[in-house]
Design brief:
By secondary structure, the protein is an alpha/beta fold. The chain is built from nine helices and eight strands. The strands form two sheets. A four-stranded mixed sheet has the order 1-5-7-8. Strands 4-3-2-6 form a four-stranded mixed sheet. Strand 2 and strand 3 form a beta hairpin. Helix 5 crosses helix 6, helix 5 packs antiparallel against helix 7 and helix 7 packs antiparallel against helix 8. The longest helix has 23 residues.
Length: about 300
């Protein structure tokens, strides 16, 4: 019997692959996309952080199972990747990390320390002292608006603010559509890293109430150093297919900036700023009857 596929660490993978108009399946032990003409395109699923399935795709049980075993996140998105409909979860192997994250989010002092660290990493300076999370959010919002405006001026793009209609993404102007496509790429790889590290996407520190609250928290640290400038660059060129152009630019940028190598260490850094210990199992709890095997992937990947 062949050995089961083993996860590759996130830092050693490519960022994402978009698939559209085809049937995703496993044929002859290969993960493939089959188009309407029966042409197979082989996808190195284990070397990809996340697969984004656009409208017109169908996925088999075998393909879903193989993606889960290799620790590859599968995300069902709208056209251009600007909507998220659903996501598979290949993580979940480390309850201690999840409990630690929850403890930090529930402790007001620890949560504020985490938020201050996020602010410091995002803006390159320590957050103002004696400010609540709500006050820091207000300061952050004002700085972000200025950053958008400055980048629009730098790339000579018309800009009236970050505006979009979640029910109809096509109504937005070119710059906003490019920004939506770019941030969706960053959110995808960020969610894959969060799950691979053993944390919950929904437990946020700045954002709350959404399935990807922590994804937004972490992605915001990288956003203005990566995808936002790229979105304005693409908008300036007025491409015929802006979403496609943005995705290719994001893929190249993630590789050049080594974003996947930075994501999990950054997650650990911001959570450690909360200064709470990782919870240990209770004395009355029972450990695994069969010891866990050492995994080749990240600590949150299921082996």
């Amino acid at each position: 019997m062949e050995d089961a596929p083993r996860p590759i660490p996130i830092k050693n993978r490519v960022s994402f692959v978009f698939l559209e108009k085809g049937h995703v399946d496993v044929i002859d032990s290969a993960f493939v996309l089959v188009d309407k003409h029966g042409v197979r395109t082989q996808i190195p699923v284990g070397k990809v952080s996340c697969l984004m399935l656009e409208p017109g795709t169908r996925v088999s049980h075998a393909a879903s199972a193989l993606a889960a075993r290799t620790g590859t996140l599968v995300i069902w998105v709208g056209e251009g990747g600007v909507r998220l409909y659903s996501a598979g979860q290949p993580g979940g192997a480390r309850a201690d990390r999840l409990l630690w994250q929850a403890a930090l989010a529930l402790d007001d002092k620890a949560r504020l320390k985490v938020v201050r660290k996020m602010y410091e990493l995002r803006f390159g300076q320590k957050a103002p002292s004696r400010r609540s999370v709500q006050q820091l959010r207000g300061i952050e919002g004002a700085r972000v608006r200025k950053l958008y405006k400055r980048l629009a001026q730098q790339y000579r793009v018309d800009w009236t603010g970050r505006k979009y209609d979640p029910k109809d993404w096509g109504k937005g102007d070119l710059a906003n559509r490019c920004l939506s496509a770019a941030t969706s790429c960053l959110y995808g790889v960020t969610e894959a890293a969060i799950l691979a590290a053993g944390y919950a996407p929904a437990i946020g520190f700045i954002h709350t109430g959404k399935p990807r609250s922590f994804v937004y928290d972490v992605a915001d640290i990288f956003k203005f150093d990566t995808v936002v400038p790229l979105a304005f660059q693409i908008a300036k060129k007025h491409p015929a297919r802006p979403a496609s152009a943005v995705r290719h630019a994001c893929r190249d940028s993630f590789r050049e900036e080594k974003v996947l190598r930075k994501l999990i260490p950054t997650i650990e850094e911001v959570l450690e700023a909360g200064e709470l210990p990782v919870p240990k199992p209770g004395k009355e709890q029972i450990g695994p009857a069969i010891p866990n095997e050492e995994t080749t992937g990240d600590v949150g990947h299921r082996s």
